[in-house]
Design brief:
Length: 1038
């Protein structure tokens, strides 16, 4: 006799417990001896007040008898429960505050007896029961119940109905092991109705409002899938119907060979020595010390055990005996999903006319035949990753890259590997940036320029607008000059030099690191040339009049075969590419015009504020105006980004991109070029143009009637710093909100609207999630090119810190803090809010590495020009050398030119100003005084400074470029250790296949010999020919 008990009496370890109330079948009988109870007491006690029903696993095979009285009943589709316990559990299940959605996970008994009756177990009845619970009803629909000899009671639900199936619990009956809720769910939540075949892919459609044309397409498409060997099962419980797809082993083997997928081999002779030597080389004293220091960031080996290394080989059914089919990486889930997706993308849905325009699941989803097609999340792996990886509290821990690759595929895993590596590489340069900033803060008081500006009460500066502006005193810029020194000091050049070296080191070591990862995952040698053409590409060819005849080949039986013809560039590809990039240039011009509009806004605001007058006028011009302009710039940038990002996808669709890799690269380049101009234009303006072509008071250079903006006496580097912080930090904040808040709101809205049918369009698709594919249906779709958005965000950030970080040494620190959170936020988004993406193979991060390499080279020239033209380094050096004043005591006066107020181009209307009688004023320029024979012309010192600036740019750029070249040469893309290992593995692999082929050939020869005896000479000749042929075949295969 068994009864309901409390889990704190008989508990499983916490690792066995689920986050929900659970249903357990235990091998321990509550009526057994005290010894059994004492043994059970050794289990770890858990303090949760969950209620659990225990039953003996042996009793699952109980008698066929009917329900009993208060003492029990039988099981043959019936479950024995003590009457008192049954009533107790029923009261528990429906008590106030009990979550009705989890009541389905309990048996709800009633009356005086205890057997599961023969109520309505159809899918429709189960769905009706679940909808009733969702709608808050406190009773079950008629006809679904638990009966005993006392009458009808609570109800038999989906959980109990499936759990009592013989096919679902046969292994438990044999092994007499306890079944947890998670274990039960793994058998039923993601499987066919037989409880054995796994659901590898799901198609969804509206079953009750499906058009006849769509129904016909579905039938043809599904029939073609079945002809390919896929197994289908329909689920029509609710209005949204689902088609569960399972790929048998034979199909996986066939397409793994077609797609040239590498899989791990069984251990082969000699591999242990290679692996042992590689492991020994890494176990140096330094590595052991680092491992002990960073033990707190290591992965939980209990959840993510370290895997035994294996040698990988392209799959071939001829060598099936050589592969380790039990290895986790052997045709793992992401590989299975990619194979099924490959099949789905290439099946026709129209009979007779099988063209490239009527094939593929994407076309069916686009036409509304299916609402979506997706793979399923795995609850166990997903929860493990959510707990240990997609968790902000685990920010300092390493990432389980092998498990990420198994779950999402190599392409997604490489993104997270790159993001983690990039974040770790930011640590040293962030520390150095903090030290440089602290240097400026500590030596603040010793700066002669800011000290002279703050102590100068007599220097009168020229008005900043033509008529209504008054003269102003130089010491009004005291605060801004001090802040300017924080970033324009002796460490500026050192930091810029360090950033240039860091960028190359980061890129080179990433290539080495990724090469090791790719080899570990069996993707060495994979290239996009192995990829098959995109169905959309083939469809474009079939619609082209010039290529339609080359797109197909028809045999004598009338069967048409889709071909992959060569598409000429000038006659076919040129026009789409020209149109696409022309529109991109148009948007770049729009972005530049927007930046110019903001610059004019700043000029107008500066002039209007000067006209109106204010005692805080200088504070407004130096601090407030740049900040407001930066915020407006950020808003404009974000709006243009949103518009162009969606347009870039349409432009790329217009082009002839043969493979998915080519498509992604084309989309990436167009987007990044636009983002480069969009995000960096205002920063380049401040760094290279602002204040450089202003003119002088007697002859100002104007734009649309406005005087150009001037830099403060200390330079424009402070304003560049403010603009960089606003755009960089603002962009990161906006992206964080967009990436997390919007998906959460969209998923919640979609789930509620489907569940409650809020809108007419959703009423026909009302959905109650009760298994994995219905749960995942409410998630947001995962796009094939969704990763490029994540890459784009990070590469734009990389541009900020390499191109302009010398204006703000703390920029790498901001990037580091953002990225630490970004890794976890991206993981949370992919696991919680998005459907599981189809795994894709990749050997690197693609065109993004080339983009970062180009940015690194541009950054060298950018840093050189910023140092030369936007800092005071070169003028200070020239002044100290020319004037013999290394202490720079009179440097401030050296940088200010004198102007006679009688020579104003437009005389100011000063009115009651206290500076009415001023005869001279100063302005920041290198020009002759009004008393010079050549007044206001450029003096010789100006040309010396200009020569020094140009010489610095040439010398700096050449030195950095030479050092970067040396680093690229000294750090090969693949380490010598890994190259040696690859060569040795290939040799072992080749020899292993030769031996296998030799044994196989000998068996064939022996079989033939047994059937047709031959002479010894003929037999030796046949053996030699077979061995030579097998050696050649093995060499070409490897």
């Amino acid at each position: 006799m068994y009864s309901a008990v409390r889990t704190h009496d008989y508990d499983y370890p916490e690792s066995e417990m689920d986050e929900r109330e659970s249903l357990y079948f235990d091998t321990i009988s509550l009526a057994e001896s005290e010894a059994a109870a004492a043994a059970a007491a050794h289990r770890k006690s858990i303090s949760q007040s969950r209620n659990t029903i225990y039953h003996s696993a042996v009793d699952l095979a109980g008698d066929e008898g009917g329900g009993g009285g208060g003492g029990g009943g039988g099981l043959g589709g019936r479950l024995r429960l003590g009457g008192g316990a049954n009533a107790e559990h029923a009261a528990l299940a429906w008590q106030p505050g009990y979550r009705q959605s989890t009541a389905l996970e309990h048996l709800n008994g009633g009356g005086g007896g205890g057997g599961v009756g023969s109520g309505d177990h159809t899918d429709a009845a189960i769905a009706a029961q679940m909808i009733a619970l969702q709608n808050g009803r406190n009773h079950l629909p008629t006809g679904i119940g638990v009966t005993g000899d006392g009458g009808q009671g609570g109800g038999d639900d989906e959980v109990s109905r499936r759990l009592l199936r013989t096919s679902s619990n046969i292994s438990n009956k044999d092994k007499k092991l306890p079944i947890t809720y998670s274990q039960w769910k793994s058998r039923t939540y993601r499987r066919f109705d037989d409880g054995k075949r796994s659901v590898d892919f799901v198609l969804a459609y509206n079953g009750e409002t499906q058009l006849e044309e769509h129904r016909r397409k579905c039938e043809i498409f599904e029939a073609n899938l079945q002809r390919e060997g896929l197994q289908l099962e329909h689920n029509k419980v609710q209005r949204v119907h689902f088609i569960k797809i399972h790929a048998p082993t034979e199909v996986l083997y066939r397409y793994a060979e077609i797609l040239k997928i590498k899989v791990p081999l069984k251990p082969i002779p000699g591999q242990d020595q290679i692996f042992a030597e590689s492991a020994h080389e890494f176990k140096t004293c330094l590595s052991r010390m680092c491992k002990s220091l960073f033990s707190s960031v290591q992965l939980n080996t209990a959840l993510f055990p370290e895997r035994e290394p294996r040698i990988h080989l392209e799959f071939s059914r001829n060598y099936l005996e050589l592969y380790d089919t039990e290895h986790p990486n052997f045709l793992d889930a992401s590989t299975r999903y990619s194979i099924i997706n490959f099949i789905l993308q290439r099946q026709h849905f129209v009979e007779g006319e099988e063209t490239a325009d009527n094939l593929g699941i994407e076309k069916l989803v686009q036409d509304g035949v299916y609402t979506c097609a997706y793979t399923l999340h795995d609850k166990d792996d997903r929860n493990r990753l959510l707990k240990e990886w997609a968790n902000i509290s685990k920010w300092k821990n390493l990432q389980p890259l092998d498990q990420i690759k198994d779950y999402f595929g190599a392409k997604v895993a490489l993104y997270f590997a790159w993001l983690g590596f990039y974040t770790q590489m930011l640590i040293p340069i962030s520390i150095f940036g903090v030290l440089c900033f602290l240097y400026g803060f500590i030596t603040w008081s010793s700066d002669p320029i800011s000290r002279d500006i703050c102590n100068d009460n007599g220097t009168i500066m020229c008005p900043q607008c033509d008529r209504s502006c008054d003269y102003w005193r130089l010491n009004e810029t005291c605060t801004s000059s001090k802040f300017n020194y924080l970033i324009d000091n002796n460490m500026t050049v050192v930091f810029a030099f360090s950033m240039a070296i860091w960028a190359v080191v980061y890129l080179e070591f990433w290539k080495r690191y990724s090469a090791g990862l790719v080899h570990r995952w069996g993707l060495t040698g994979f290239t996009h040339h192995v990829e098959h053409p995109r169905p959309q590409y083939l469809a474009k060819i079939s619609r082209s009049k010039r290529l339609a005849g080359k797109a197909y080949e028809q045999d004598q039986a009338g069967k048409r075969t889709v071909l992959d013809p060569d598409v000429p560039f000038w006659s076919i590809k040129f026009l789409p590419n020209f149109t696409s990039y022309s529109i991109m240039i148009l948007f770049i011009c729009i972005s530049v015009i927007a930046i110019a509009g903001i610059i004019i806004y700043r000029m107008a605001q500066r002039a209007s504020h000067s006209i109106l007058g204010s005692e805080n006028s200088m504070t407004f011009k130096v601090m407030i105006l740049p900040m407001t302009a930066g915020i407006i710039d950020l808003i404009v940038i974000s709006l243009l980004d949103m518009v162009y990002s969606s347009l870039a996808v349409k432009l790329t669709n217009y082009e002839y991109c043969r493979t998915q890799t080519e498509y992604d690269e084309s989309l990436t380049i167009k987007n990044y070029v636009f983002q480069f101009v969009n995000y960096y234009s205002s920063l380049f303006y401040i760094a290279f143009l602002k204040g450089k072509f202003v003119g002088y008071p007697a002859k100002y250079n104007r734009v649309l009637g406005f005087r150009q903006e001037e830099c403060n006496p200390g330079g424009c580097l402070m304003e560049l710093c403010m603009q960089l912080v606003i755009i960089m930090a603002g962009k990161q904040a906006v992206n964080a909100i967009v990436e997390m808040l919007i998906p959460y709101l969209m998923r919640t809205f979609k789930e509620l609207s489907y569940r409650h049918g809020w809108y007419k369009s959703h009423q026909d698709q009302r959905l109650v999630p009760y298994n994995q594919f219905t749960e995942d249906y409410n998630l947001l779709p995962a796009q094939n090119n969704s990763l490029y958005v994540e890459y784009l965000e990070m590469v734009v950030q990389f541009g900020f810190i390499t191109l302009f970080s010398l204006a703000f040494p703390l920029a790498p620190l901001l990037a580091l803090l953002n990225n630490v959170i970004e890794v976890r936020l991206d993981a949370i988004k992919m696991l919680r809010f998005l459907r599981r993406p189809v795994g894709m193979r990749a050997r690197d991060i693609g065109v993004w590495h080339n983009i970062m390499t180009v940015v690194t080279r541009i950054a060298v020239a950018s840093s050189a020009m910023i140092i030369a033209f936007s800092t005071n380094l070169i003028p200070k050096i020239v002044y100290a050398a020319s004037m013999g004043d290394p202490e720079l005591n009179n440097y401030l006066n050296f940088t200010l030119a004198v102007f006679n107020t009688k020579d104003f181009q437009v005389q100011p209307l000063l009115g009651g100003s206290q500076h009415v009688n001023e005869t001279v004023c100063r302005y920041t320029e290198f020009r002759n005084s009004p008393d010079d024979p050549h007044p206001y012309k450029r003096p010789m010192i100006y040309w010396k400074i200009l020569t020094g600036r140009l010489a610095f740019i040439v010398i700096y750029q050449n030195i950095i470029t030479m050092l970067q070249g040396i680093l690229r040469w000294a750090v090969p893309d693949v380490s010598g250790r890994l190259l040696k290992r690859i060569k040795r593995e290939n040799f072992l692999l080749r020899e292993h296949i030769i031996e296998y082929e030799k044994r196989h050939a000998m068996k064939l020869v022996q079989t033939e010999l047994n059937g047709h005896p031959k002479s010894d000479g003929e037999l030796r000749q046949r053996n030699n020919e077979t061995v030579i042929r097998s050696r050649d075949d093995a060499t070409s295969f490897v």
